[in-house]
Amino acid sequence: MSPLPTVNCGVSNMPVVGLGTFKSGVDEVGAAVEEAIRCGYRHLDCAMIYGNEKEVGVALAKLFKEGVVKREELFINSKLWNTYHRKEEVVVGCDKTLSDLQLDYLDLYLIHWPVATQPNMGTLNPEDENNVPILDSASPSLTETWEAMEQLVRDGKCRNIGLSNFNKKQVEEILEFSSRTGGIKPACLQVESHPYLPNLELAKFCQKNDIAFVAFRPLGGPPRKGQASLLEDKDILKIAEAHGKSPAQILIRYHVDRGIVAIPKSVNPDRIKQNFEVSDFVLSPSEMETLNGICQRFTKRSCLAPHFKHCPNYPFKDEISA
Predict the structure, then answer these.
(1) pTM exceeding the 0.90 threshold for the entire prediction
(2) Which of 41, 50, 84, 314 is catalytic?
(3) Is 50 in the active site?
């Protein structure tokens, strides 16, 4: 089995398959990380809002101590949460993540959402009496936050910085700002991507601008009422049968063959192993065309985050009613 490739991510190389930790419980994420590293994963996707970075850090410390892997052999990324967008708060958020993960630096740090909520309220999700997120009264701009992210690189806390859940216009704003100021351009954009939402044009835009494109929920999100899961899609099942692979492996390879990084999440040891075993086959041009065409039958973004729709920088305004 040939090794999986990497993609360029700023000054680093990012493995094309990583382990996602979103919604992995605090009582199971450590074992999942250990299993993933032991079976060959070298890329971990984390975030403060996932609420499990301390447990990931304990697992990493154990693996380092036992000599299973060295820190420099891993690509570890995390994300700045919405309550840390003010210039002076960005380093606070990063330092908290570094402390929880028991690391000296991150390979990649992303702005999780282009949405700023009120800091220092004792919660990561400040809401009013109607359960509506409370926006940051200081209204920090995206470029203000980005400037502080650039400083993290200069201070050695991060090797690379990037964006998550930004739309094309917002990415262009950061690109223009970094170019105009001689700053650091985004190394990565992480967004939801799968055959129901392939983001073909956004991926091309990123590749044209040397921005690594990372797909979260590469297996698709929870199916809507009356709609089959991608793992049960007839076209995907047919391609899986032809290759003797699982539907999940076909979906992960779909991203790899497009030069896109996939970060499937699982805490099941067998699935963790299976999701990584995608280097011994490739999809044909006709199979890729079939997969790219699935969105013509049905298009779905599962991570709309509609509770942020009143925010000025909400990225999916054209996909949701006011």
Answers:
(1) yes
(2) 50
(3) yes
